[in-house]
Amino acid sequence: MHTDFEEYVQTRSGHLVRFAHVLCGDRHLAEDLVQEVLAKAYPRWRRIADGDPDLYLRRGLIWANSTWWRRRSSRESAVEQPPDTACGTDFAQRHAERSALWQLLATLPRSQRTVLVLRFFEDLDDRQIAELTGRSPATVRVHAHRGLAQLRSRLAVPVSGTAQAPPSVPVAAVRRRAAQRRHRGIAAGAAALALTVLALLVPFLLPHTPPPVITPSPSPSVLPLAPFSAPLSVFPYEPTVLPGPLAGMASTVAVTDSALVLTFASPTRLWNSMELRVTAARPDMTQATETTTIGGTQAFLMRGTAWDRGLQLDLWWQRDGRWLQLTSNSLLTVAQAQAFAEGLRPAARPVTSRLRLGLAPAGYQVWSMRPDGICVRAVAAPATDPAYVFDTLCVGLQQAEHVVGAPQFNVGWLPAQRTGTAERPALRVFLDDTRMVIIEHDMRLVPLRFEDLIRIAESITLDGHFLTG
């Protein structure tokens, strides 16, 4: 075993046990989680040691604890045991206070408990906690505020004193667990090899019957995966006139159906929005019934009634060799839409997404990109199928509160679930209790295997960090 790994286990594993203990509320489970995470880290310790081992292992403990909670069928009540060594004067009072605090922590939701443990037991700031848990600093502060509010409402006696770190995990135990994992991997590989050999021999051992003569039909081939990097896209205009309904609204830029889109949406009435779409292709203006002027050029206008009885309008005009389409749902009047269009000035606002793909089917390009998702699709239709509808691969960040069914396996550290159908498989990777990343391939001509979706999931980064750690 590497000397630096032994030294780390001897000096830091006690602090990891304390951290895991406060997370799960069970001393024995905490030691087991720490040993399991250390055993997984041992084969690649040299690479881990070059970075931040504490950050890496604490993140592993968070996901290991989350995975254990998902798998368990019943919960055992955690009973605090007295420490093995003295911790100063008035031991009974200190122990009672810590026991009461840990029991109260165990009643909090896991997300709030994790934030409080990282802030007060690990002394991390909001930015470090956000990086460790995959949440935003604002979400971390909300969880901390709500968790502290619940503790203050239930805790009558203030907790004092500093808890000592439990003794370090035995290095020999970590060595045995790592060896057991390696032996299980070897045994599983040997069993798989034996089954493969047996499957190859079975056709020769069974009586051979000539198959009927069948004319084979062309079958789709599996798409190869290739490294993928989305090119930088910029929205080419910036408004200088914001009519009253748009004042104070946040705007976002995205790529939708290969067109650049600027969107303003009402924070209180989500169906009230305005979109400005920029594309090189001439839009469908068959519904336009009026003409007007924008920037000295002819523009086309269509009025209608939105479902909330507001004004639905579409305005088309050409500028700088591009076509622009402004669509307003119950937000702008015609005069306000014209003022907005007249006030556009050249700019270069980049289109960004929190998600990035490292692998994609060969020949795919960006079809849509938004802050919480990206879709890529085939570049051109095959000459043999002019009616071909493009295959599309989409990756999106979504809420996970109402997911049906439990995770079935892990992708890296993260619990995952297979969904969809055999012809159109999909993959869900759970980041925490409230968020998941969904990978879907809308296959109409050439399929992707489920194993390919896992490889794609392992190549995804969220806010610059790989999903799988």
Description:
Strands 3-4-5-9-8-7-6 form a seven-stranded antiparallel beta sheet. The protein has helices spanning 3-24, 27-41, 45-49, 53-71, 91-107, 110-121, 126-133, 137-154, 171-205, 334-342, 450-458; strands at residues 225-227, 234-239, 251-256, 259-265, 273-279, 290-294, 297-305, 311-319, 322-329, 344-350, 355-356, 359-361, 364-370, 373-378, 392-399, 409-411, 414-420, 425-430, 435-442, 461-462, 465-466. Strand 20 and strand 21 form a beta hairpin. The chain is of the alpha+beta class. The radius of gyration is 29 Å and the shape is globular. It has three domains: 3-172, PhyR, sigma-like (SL) domain (Butyryl-CoA Dehydrogenase, subunit A, domain 3, Up-down Bundle), CATH 1.20.140; 234-350, Protein Transport Mog1p, Chain A; 355-466, Jelly Rolls (Sandwich), CATH 2.60.120. Helix 1 (3-24) packs antiparallel against helix 2, helix 2 crosses helix 4 (53-71) and helix 2 (27-41) crosses helix 9 (171-205).
Characteristics:
alpha+beta, 469 residues, globular, Protein Transport Mog1p, Chain A, seven-stranded antiparallel beta sheet
Strand and helix map with partners:
Layout (H helix, E strand, L loop, with lengths): L2 H22 L2 H15 L3 H5 L3 H19 L19 H17 L2 H12 L4 H8 L3 H18 L16 H35 L19 E3 L6 E6 L11 E6 L2 E7 L7 E7 L10 E5 L2 E9 L5 E9 L2 E8 L4 H9 L1 E7 L4 E2 L2 E3 L2 E7 L2 E6 L13 E8 L9 E3 L2 E7 L4 E6 L4 E8 L7 H9 L2 E2 L2 E2 L3
Antiparallel strand pairs: 1-12, 2-10, 3-4, 4-5, 5-9, 6-7, 7-8, 8-9, 11-20, 13-14, 14-15, 15-19, 16-17, 17-18, 18-19, 20-21
